[in-house]
Design a protein that fits this description.
Structural class of chain B: mainly beta
Strand content of chain A: over 45%
Order of helices and strands of chain A: EEEEEEEEEEEE
Shape of chain B: globular
Shape of chain A: globular
Number of strands of chain B: 11
Mean pLDDT of chain A: 91
Oligomer: heterodimer
Largest sheet of chain A: 6 strands, mixed
Distance between the termini of chain B: 33 Å
Number of strands of chain A: 12
């Protein structure tokens, strides 16, 4: 079984500043995927960034980057130059790569507030 | 369609009623997932289809929950004899890949079920 822990229920950042959202996970799998999803108030989940565990290089997507520490089982999300449109719930998730029948395991989420 | 479509967006049911929630995945998507998201929580996996085959239903909370995807496209999640603890947002997601993690999951906006 996999578990994902997000210890920050809410984070606030000034517009244009940088914010880091924390995530730790636990898995017995040797190969797995990690994700950050954004859920705006409309509730549609949108993939922000994805990391394959076998890749040591941290994934980056424009203003979004991760700090993947495999030994520590940590997967934090850094948002640079925060924009008002970044305000949303952010969910960290993990997925075993074996079998294909498993669903994502989500954390409880972090509510990100952007201060204008 | 352009995205994953779910209906109804909102459903209020009296305790003991049966409900049916519909998901129209992106055309041609092989994989389809159902998740349950309680208020203030992350989504929790319910069940997974690869085409018309239900490969994993380990997340269904009780035998009152039933899902089908008879023609490998539209899926219906049915909840019989609804209880108050069934109140949640039910999210559907689809992917063009048959292997979990290999492709991006596209989520619908969800169906919010309130059981009185």
């Amino acid at each position: 079984a996999q578990t994902v822990t997000q210890s920050q229920p809410e984070m606030s950042v000034q517009e244009a500043e940088t914010v880091t959202l924390s995530c730790t996970y636990d898995t017995s799998e040797s190969d797995y995927y990690l994700f950050w999803y954004k859920q705006p108030p409309s509730r549609q989940m949108i993939l922000v960034i994805r990391q394959e565990a076998y890749k040591q290089q941290n994934a980056t997507e424009n203003r979004f980057s991760v700090n993947f520490q495999k030994a520590a089982k940590s997967f934090s999300l850094k948002i640079s130059d925060s924009q008002l449109g970044d305000a949303a719930m952010y969910f960290c998730a993990s997925l075993s790569s074996g079998g294909g029948a498993d669903g994502l395991t989500f954390g409880k989420g972090t509510h990100l507030i952007i201060q204008p | 369609g352009a995205g994953v479509s779910q209906s109804p967006r909102y459903k209020v049911a009296k305790r003991g009623q049966d409900v049916a929630l519909r998901c129209d995945p992106i055309s041609g998507h092989v994989s389809l997932f159902w998740y349950q998201q309680a208020l203030g929580q992350g989504p929790e996996f319910l069940t997974y289809f690869q085409n018309e085959a239900q490969l994993d239903k380990s997340g269904l909370p009780s035998d009152r929950f039933f899902a089908e995807r008879p023609e490998g496209s539209v899926s219906t999640l049915k909840i019989q004899r609804t209880q108050q603890e069934d109140s949640a947002v039910y999210l559907c997601a689809s992917s063009s890949h048959s292997l979990a993690g290999a492709g991006e999951l596209f989520f619908g906006e969800g169906s919010r079920l309130t059981v009185l």
